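Re: your question about Dynamin-type G domain-containing protein

S., sorry for the slow reply, the queue was backed up all week. Below is exactly what I fed in.
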Amino acid sequence: MEIEAPRIGSCSKEHQKIYKEWFDVADSDNDGRVTGNNAISFLSMSNLSRQELKQVWAIADSKRQGYLGFKEFVIAMQLVSLVQDGNELSHDILKGDVDFENVKPPKMEGLDELIQKKKDPSNSSKPDSDGNSPRQASITTQWFSSKPSKRYLSNVTSIQDGLKKLYTRKLKPLEVTYCFNDFVSPLLTNSDFDAKPMVMLLGQYSTGKTTFIKHMLKCSYPGARIGPEPTTDRFVVVMSGTDERSVPGNTIAVHADMPFTGLNSFGTAFLSKFECSQMPHPLLEHITFVDTPGVLSGEKQRTQRAYDFTGVTAWFAAKCDLILLLFDPHKLDISDEFKRVIYSLRGHDDKIRVVLNKADQVDTQQLMRIYGALMWSLGKVLNTPEVVRVYIGSFNEKPVNEGFTGPIGKALFEKEQEDLLTDLKDIPKKACDRRINEFVKRARAAKIHAYIVGHLKKEMPTFIGKAKTQQRLTDNLEEEFVKVQRDYHLPPGDFPDVENFKEVLRGYSFDRFEKLKPKMIQDVDEMLGYDIPNLLKTLRNPYD
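Result:
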């Protein structure tokens, strides 16, 4: 099982040269992106119907970025050519036998004249019928087409750029004012918005986490260690790079272009057990894998760790797009530490998938009993009324052991592997939606945090008895949460864990907290209620 790099988008050097010239015409502001308005003007030269162009955009911008880069532009051109040749456009066409590398460029009516005009420098400064140069006209249009108060979003060409601006202008000031980064999550950086989707693998030792990654890549990666004993003793991020190398954790954590600067808060003890494995691979251009140390059973192992294992897992869980919990038929017990790890994933239930690995090591009857036992164990720990999705298979390079499973078991494993493969293939497509979802979740959490901190500040006396009042508020924190919830009509499920909040509060003097600033709350409400929906509306499929 593997995720193949899509063949669509690959083309000959001759065609690539043509498409580059066309891309420069379509990209009128030379920012390396063809946005919706540019695309409407350019693609109209293909003389396709609006419905056909809507499908072209939907497939080319499958990640829903809100624009076409050069690679996506090539895909769009190839799709236009196929439609012009009488092919019906659908996602199935990508799985067919089309030789995309030799798909000829489409017919674009009037494009040659545009290219000629662009090459002629005397045309670029000719005034229009009103006496304005094209440059002046575009600036004037941009200036008057946007609302004055929202002008900072008027020149945004992608959803992630829009979220960056909204975070910097509206959400980050609230987080800094009320120390959100100390209580909940470190402040976001640009690399957090630009990072590729991540898949984290969790499980007890020797359940096949590292082997699973090797199976997906169809090769080993730098620093991979496999064995029946606990071999992976560190967190390893497997990501795309120009050459094969392992980078130490302390180096990665200070790298501004990577989304791991927040891990500095876990200290050198953790960073010495963290590394980044880089290698050139088509799959890693779309997804980053996070391999984790095997969770050991018993209380002793937890105390031996020199860093907060559960805290690190929770940090990665917030960043990841998919979390795979791996079990094997001989390790179904959920230890104390594994239970704490699973509890730390709360709030990310929609990301969790369970994989029963090495399932070809037992016969069909035993597998049925093991599946039932696993569901029973998970039901006690996950504590949700919904049944978690469990994939059954043997995710390694060896063929399925039919001696145990029989032909029916083999067919089942193949279907399960295909389902998991589909889930993984969809990650890059859903990455933008997931990023918006996590951003909105963070904004709601920051708002509730501000209400709590503002309430604690308000309850403090002006002069006498500050220490006693702070102690009383800390001891009765759950009651204070109820008051905040009642006063501001907030959902109880959005409040943080009381014990964790108490732990961080002990390092603060409530008297130094900021009072609640309604204007900051209003800015975040406006961002959630107006700015984000408007951003999504502006950068949706231009043919909707």
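Strands lie at 34-35, 67-68, 198-203, 235-240, 245-248, 274-279, 288-291, 322-327, 352-356, 390-392. The domain at 195-398 is CATH 3.40.50.300 (Rossmann fold).

Happy to talk it through on Thursday.
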